[in-house]
Write a structure and sequence with these properties.
There is one protein chain. This protein is an alpha+beta fold and 519 residues long. The protein has 17 helices and 19 strands. Among the domains are: 116 residues, 2-Layer Sandwich (Uridine Diphospho-n-acetylenolpyruvylglucosamine Reductase, domain 3); 240 residues, Vanillyl-alcohol Oxidase, Chain A, domain 3. The strands form four sheets. The chain has an eight-stranded antiparallel β-sheet. Helix 2 packs antiparallel against helix 10. The protein starts with a helix and ends with a helix. Keywords: FAD, Flavoprotein, Oxidoreductase. Pfam families: ALO (PF04030), FAD_binding_4 (PF01565). Its EC number is 1.1.3.37.
């Protein structure tokens, strides 16, 4: 039965592609206006305007609240007006966009500003290259589309896999891609426009004031409402994307070092119970290398592939519900999923397609914990922590417990200059690995298991969590972050109080405890 299911599921995407090819001419007519493949799919689920008295909830479903008012701005003047109205009414302001943040950063009892309608994107040619200016509510897919259609075609250097998240939230929470030399996404930001506590638009850049810019790069919404983000971009290029599946038992620090030195980007996954025994378990290693060879897939084939991926993840969501009903089936179900998903690949894709290599991820709501850990120079501690998570999963399994059922994922990046980044370091050559674990929403024991991981990483490495992922359930976490940020809080506060002296944007209980160290 398993073999029949594997065969059927493994060929699902190909079957969808073949079906769609029969209607290629009609699809081509729809694509003639140079729409991006991501806009054709239309995966955005929360682009509507929220009513003034609506209850807002995030994508994962773990955060919901009813603010006093919800605003949907369509211009920078709207933002200025909201801030001045809040001043007059004695209210505070927080912001949200697509809602892909697990933590409570957007929560407020006062005014919530939804930035989705601010989505204009333009390109500027400067003496040292090109810069894309994107309003805070622009989806990454919109930015990609404008850049691809530019003459000459351009691309963002590194970005999240998800392309339907909004650039304002990506920057404000310090998100990252997987390209080692590019650091985090905020380190590609060359300018920010923020409506601050005085209700006016202020410009931030390294040229104006480097210290203030490094505070603004990851601001958590505490300096004001981000109106526009300016990112350094580069001429379009292709990436060879290579997926291999070596035995985990053969993976060591020397292997990892070689992969880092010979790749433009690197992502390492462990798919739980992907083999018949612990000894034969495999890792999934995804590499990106710049290529001058022609793309393997045409633009239309990319459209077909992404449609198939999106459809597959919707089926997978239903499939994974069996785990919630019967957790003891986790090994067999994740093993089956691994057989479907873990296929070796060596193809050349356009850079944005390779960066956003998987469509439909948000069809599977999940839990997610991530920490940034400083890597040893020989990368031994990276392998040590992969081994630790792997062995811990099997230790739990011996007791019939299965808290991790999606994936363990790791990316390796150079340090960030942003003061509040969890990958911040004064040494620009320092390297951090960003280790995360994911399970479908509702998985029993996820908090217990990830608390053990987090406590180890905090005690052993002074590691810090990703602001946008889940972290607030960890015991004493706000006091811990306050202690580890140390003088960095004072540096950030010096900038924050300048632009928000009345604490208009400081309406989040977790952040209050982080900044002030109170219980």
């Amino acid at each position: 039965m398993d073999k029949i299911a594997v065969h059927g599921l493994k060929s699902f995407e190909l079957a969808v592609i073949e079906s769609l090819k029969k209607n290629e001419s009609s699809i081509l007519k729809r694509a003639q206006n140079q729409e991006s493949q991501r806009s054709i799919i239309g995966t955005s689920a929360s682009a509507r305007d929220f009513g003034e008295n609506d209850v807002w909830h995030n994508w994962a479903g773990n955060i919901s609240f009813k603010p006093a008012k919800i605003f949907n701005p369509k211009s920078v003047q709207d933002l200025k007006d909201y801030v001045k109205a809040a001043q007059k009414d004695g209210k505070k302001i927080r912001c949200a966009a697509e809602g892909h943040t697990w933590s409570s950063l957007s929560m407020t009892n006062d005014y919530l500003v939804i930035l989705n309608n601010l989505d204009k994107v333009t390109v500027e040619k400067r003496n040292d290259g090109y810069v894309v200016h994107a309003e805070a509510g622009a989806e990454i897919s919109q930015i990609d589309e404008v850049l691809e259609n530019h003459d000459p075609p351009l691309t963002i250097t590194s970005m999240t896999v998800l392309d339907n998240v909004r650039i304002g939230g990506v920057v404000a929470t310090g998100c990252h891609g997987a390209r080692t030399e590019s650091r985090t996404i905020v380190d590609q930001v060359v300018g920010l426009q923020i409506v601050t506590g005085d209700g006016e638009l202020h410009e931030f850049s390294d040229e104006i004031n480097r210290d203030e810019m490094n505070a603004a790069r990851v601001s958590l919404g505490l300096l004001g409402i981000i109106y526009r983000v300016s990112l350094r971009v580069e001429p379009m290029y292709d990436l060879r994307m290579i997926d291999t599946y070596p035995l985990k038992s053969n993976f060591n620090a020397a292997t990892l070092k070689n992969l880092i030195e010979n790749s433009d980007g690197l992502e390492i996954f462990y798919w739980p119970f992907n083999s018949s025994s612990k000894e034969t378990e495999k890792l999934w290693i995804k590499r990106w290398i710049k290529s001058i060879e022609p793309a393997t897939l045409s633009d239309l084939q990319q459209v077909f592939l992404r449609v198939a991926q999106s459809a597959s993840t919707k089926i997978a969501h239903d499939f994974y519900q069996l785990i919630l009903e019967s957790p003891e089936k986790t090994p067999s179900i994740t093993n089956l999923a691994g057989k479907v998903k873990l296929i070796e690949r060596d193809e050349v894709w356009k850079a944005p397609n390779a960066i956003h290599y998987q469509a439909g991820i948000d069809n599977i709501p999940c839990y997610d914990l991530e920490f940034a850990i400083k890597a040893d120079k020989d990368f031994e501690n990276v392998v040590t922590e992969i081994d630790y998570v792997f062995n811990k999963i099997y230790d739990y399994a011996k007791e019939g417990k299965y808290p991790i059922n999606l994936v363990v994922e790791m990316r390796i990046l150079k340090s960030s200059s942003a003061i509040l980044s969890n990958g911040y370091d004064e040494d620009p050559d320092a390297i951090y690995f960003f280790l995360e674990v994911l399970s479908i929403t509702g998985t029993p024991l996820f908090n217990e298991f990830t608390t053990e991981l987090a406590q180890r990483w905090m005690q052993k490495y002074n590691a810090l969590p990703h602001w946008a992922k889940s972290w607030e359930y960890l015991p004493n976490i706000t006091e811990y972050i306050h202690d580890k940020l140390g003088e960095r809080i004072n540096k950030f506060e010096a900038v924050r109080v300048k632009y928000d002296p009345n604490n208009m944007f400081f309406d989040n209980e977790s952040l209050k405890r982080v900044f002030y160290g109170t219980k």
